[in-house]
Amino acid sequence: MKRLDRAAEAIARSILHCEQMRVISHNDADGITSAGLICHALLRAGIPFQATLVNRLDSSVIEGLTGPVVFCDMGSGKPELISLVPGECFVLDHHRPVGSLDCMHHNPHLFGIDGAFELSASGTVYSVVRHMGDNADLAGLALVGAMGDRQAMIGANRSILEEAVASGAVQVRPGLKLPGDGPVEEVLTRSIEPLLDFTGDREKVGEFLDALRISGNAESLEGDELTRLATALTLKLIMQGSFAADSILGEVIRLRH
Question: pTM of the entire structure?
């Protein structure tokens, strides 16, 4: 982590010396949050920028592009394309590198960190933007990208989580690991992760909750109610033959702003 942080600081200094910046990023959750992170940092630093989200990095993206440009969540596997861009380039990625790049390249794999599980592209970008100004409040956005790539809060991701909690960007509490907050009946009705046998059927969800004597908002459940619901959902998933039964109850992370 110390080596990664030193390299991130050097890249941040170089970016801050640019008079303008083009941002090219992947159009999935990790790429979008990566673009959000670098664009926030550039805006706060007073550096004009133009951002573009693309499905993949190919010759059509490179055509007519000139530096300075930062590639987020892409580029580590396409050195032959990056080399065609005139001007200064920065590649902030987490995919396993292929070949070598002749520009500033920031990737967890270069520092012995597994980019598939321990640090996403947004986390890699955050390691840079935290040196571009007072940007600790953006740590929560980095976690969104990691979750979008289904990464665990381990290794470098855990360090970002701790920083996000310390800055007040996120709140961590034990609870149901369900998608979203709000009335528990609505949350279960729309749940697809995990996919329950009553997903989409509000009447069946209501019968399930009535039998457990549970109501209110999902994020407010605690104590005996939380235990009863978690146990019932776990049993239901086991009976469905789902492998998600062990991930119902755990660490819930919520952005605070």
Answer: 0.82
